Amino acid sequence: MKSIILLSATIFAIPISMTPLCADDAAATTEETKAEAAPAWQSKAVEYARIMSRVKWTPVAEDMPKRGGHFTAGKQYTGVPYSSVKHVGRYIGFDIFLKTFLAAVENPKSVLYTENLYGKVKNAECYYGKVCSSYTSYALQCGIWYVSKVHGPRFREGVSTVQPQSARAARPGDIIYTPPAKKNGGSHVELVTEVIRNEDGDVTHVRVEESRPQTTSNTLRDAADFDKHLASRNRELYRITDLDAWRGGNRADAFLFPNYGDDSATPKINRVLLLDRGDWVPYAKGQPVKINLMDRDKQGIRTLVIKRGETTIETIKRPGYGVIERTFDTCGDYTAHCVMNDGSKSQACEFSVCELDFRLPQQPVERAKPWTIDLTSDNLKPIVLYFKNSSDGYDEHNIFLTEEDRKSATVTIPASVTQNAKKMQVWLIGENRYGRLKKRYDVQVSD
Questions:
Q1: Can you tell me the mean pLDDT for 190-196?
Q2: Last residue of a domain, one of 332, 354, 376
Q3: Burial tier of 406 (Cβ tally within 10 Å: 0-12, 13-18, 19+)
Q4: Which among 83, 131, 336, 377 counts the fewest CB atoms within 10 Å?
Q5: Does pLDDT of 14 surpass 90?
């Protein structure tokens, strides 16, 4: 959605009212004008942020990892879990639907309870999660996340520092940036989602929402405490003045994900069977698919049926309860459902099997020269190549793929992408209607 305000070059003569405005009227008019001028995307940002910060879920087993331990089975949590899943796990909202996470929560044999990214990926524990930058980027209607360090005016257009740096100047949709405490340290971003004023128009409270351990948090501060929060750790309050300029080509509406409609709807979670990755989810070709037969309502399972499209792949009579594992080497969209003892059919779990890969040049990549990457994909649309300097958290690049790139299966990488790096992570991201997969390799840059 676009939110650019076009200003006409024509000058109109505006009649001047002869009735003077008192100070209170003038202040009220100013606030009304600001509210009217606020772009629609700001209210959408608040709405989308709250999809992730207000969702409630309850673990069904004790083994779901979090920072410093595990989430408690049977305890209700609010907000999605924090985990910097990188290319190993999956970001909720970008790589999977929110409903996929909620389905995985209901399966005690899902990756949420059987996988632990602690020690494998820095700043990660849970296989599905969000971090501060993927939370704000989701709310700000991006197709993929921007890391927190590059949210501000040093790196993006269409964003400025708010003046004054105080509660009285804050607006919903503003970003609070916390710089790294040390070189190459972690930074942080938060989102202002509500500004409360009294009858005189003075700001009394500011609500801030963010992704941090253990789940997304929601904090309402009075104006004085908000100002103290800003003043500590050299925090800065940013305002996006032109969303399209700030996002560049990174627009959510250009891709299948984020899918705000599905994420905001209440899903119907399968009570008979669930996949190890939840439901409504893509798998890589050759990756095991683990189907947990639970039959929570004790109807009795007569048959398990697995289909690819309309073709039945396998029928298993009297499968019993527990996990059945299968591997699929043919890409396509699949379903798994049960025929119950009374002849009725259960809800089907839906998933896809996909291929996604790329090949780097055989020769070393030379600095200041363009180079190419060859793509391989099946049942998945390659959408972006993401480049990250392994030694500089500020040096990241997105190459959004065109139809011509996909048709030729070759992408030309500009020399500027590897201008400053000695080693870069290269991620290929592809998507289909069930979600996204990521593939990563590293490339060395020679002088």
A1: 98
A2: 354
A3: middle
A4: 377
A5: no
